[in-house]
Amino acid sequence: MLTALLVMGGLAVGLGAVLGFAAQRFRVEGNPLVEKIDALLPQTQCGQCGYPGCRPYAQAIAEGRADINQCPPGGEEGIKQLAELLGVEPKPLNPEHGLPKPKAVAVIDESLCIGCTLCIQACPVDAIVGAAKQMHTVIAAECTGCELCLPPCPVDCIAMVPVPERIETWKWKYPVIPLRSAA
Question: Where does [4Fe-4S] cluster 1 bind (predicted)?
Answer without folding.
Answer: 46, 49, 54, 71
